[in-house]
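Example record

One chain of 241 residues, shown exactly as stored in the release files.
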Amino acid sequence: MTSAAHELFERGLRDHLAPALRRLGLTGWRRTFSLPDPTHWALLGLVEQRTDGRLRYTFDLSLVHRADWTAAALPGPRPDPRAVYGIESWRTRIGELLPVGEDVWWEVLPGPRWRVTLDDSVAAVRHYGLPELRRRAERERGAATGETYLSAAELEQVNTALLAVPVARIQRAELVDGALVLTGAWTRADAPARTVLRGVAHGFLSAEEESAGDASTGDRLFAVVRCVDTLGRPLWDFGHP
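Predicted structure tokens for this chain:
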């Protein structure tokens, strides 16, 4: 990357991108920002990629319960949206929220229209990133869609145990159509999450079978544990081992 292009990027970030994000209601400086929220850290982080002499950027978004951040006692006054802590209730790359539904990067290049790139990325944050952050924070504060299986305190106990491993917390545990549905910021490619959640699921299944007594009576509340992502998309089903 030439020094001229690097200087242009830094100037654009300092003089245009960061001020534009703050005008949208975000607080922060340079590369990490947050939305004011009473219960969550609603975060936006600028991610840079330098390859073959070029510099591109995109945004990571994440949502972390303030109580979880405090309980985790991790370094720093707030989470860094570009880092993965395992306590996020949701995180994504902004391209997943755009109509293209895939990774999107912007590159600032010298020329008379170099600010167009910055304006385009700010528009993506304004129209897609921030509305989704706000919607998810509100939804987590709102009512669940299924019958609650664990109390808030019981769910917190399970999530406290998960702090020891790099796995996102369980946001909700609900009974839906004979299944215990666990919702969290996981992906199908997240092998550690699948392994840990399999163990959690088998624990739930064993406890339910003991509570119901003879499994043949049909008195069990659920016979399968279903894990879904924060969009409700199915990831894994776990039955009795």
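Notes: The two ends are 54 Å apart (CA to CA).
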